From TrEMBL:
It holds the Pfam family BPD_transp_1. Keywords: Cell membrane, Membrane, Transmembrane, Transmembrane helix, Transport. It comes from the Bacteria. It comes from Ancylobacter novellus (strain ATCC 8093 / DSM 506 / JCM 20403 / CCM 1077 / IAM 12100 / NBRC 12443 / NCIMB 10456) (Starkeya novella). Signal peptide: none annotated. This is Binding-protein-dependent transport systems inner membrane component. Residues 70-254 form the ABC transmembrane type-1 domain. GO terms for biological process: transmembrane transport. Belongs to the binding-protein-dependent transport system permease family. Its main location: membrane. It is a multi-pass membrane protein. GO terms for cellular component: plasma membrane. It is found in: Cell membrane.
Amino acid sequence: MRRVRLLFLQVLVAVVLMAIWHVGSTYRIPAGVFGAKAFYPLDPFFFSTPIDVFQRTWRDFYTGVIWYHLGITLLETLLAFAIGALGGVLVGFWFARKQLVAAVFDPYVKMANALPRVVLAPIFALWLGLGIWSKVALGVTLVFFIVFFNVYQGVREVSPTVLANARMLGMNERQLMRNVYWPSALTWMFSSLHTAVGFALVGAVVGEYLGSAAGLGYRIHQAEGVFDVTGVFSGMLVLAIFVIIIDTLVSAIENRLLVWRPTAATGLK
């Protein structure tokens, strides 16, 4: 399948969904067809309309209202992503190379990973205040474990035969790390980073939603407080575009660093 065709099909899915939303929220079903009263299949009071959502989003960007909030959320997301991913990579490598350390901390890692992150949000707000760092801390707890488990598994998946051959050829630990362990972990790490980006944003937005004075989560919370459904959907649209842009950047970095990896037979040209 050619990339142009794939892009066309992806855009087509979005157009069809928008068309269903538009028709359902703007055209009434007459009385007597499915009920005694005329009604909208998608009541605009609860679902707004795509035209109103796009107009609100365009107005927010054009007037500059949203830039400040977008910048706050972007900063929180990037900090949570960078700190969580770096911590996950370092600890993942450490645990994978030190089996005794991994065995000692294994139950504590599982306990910490099982904690509901939403429960931690008020605690971080109490410890770190309502500024950006409580949101960053919440995002770090989400990103860290995703990257940690993937890096740990990636290092553990190194073929014993490859490892034995490398040692037989005289590689020291530093060379093994650079030429064997690191390439093995890279594929696992980047596959986790795509998911981690979304979770970093979730941490930032949930933290803003629960207590903040700025950010996209704060704007969505404010819109919900006055039953402004168009504002809520506009905030979600901005978040979706935001994630797509960041994920594209991660994919570009992945393709640059994993240029040696054989291309999967997807049929895309």
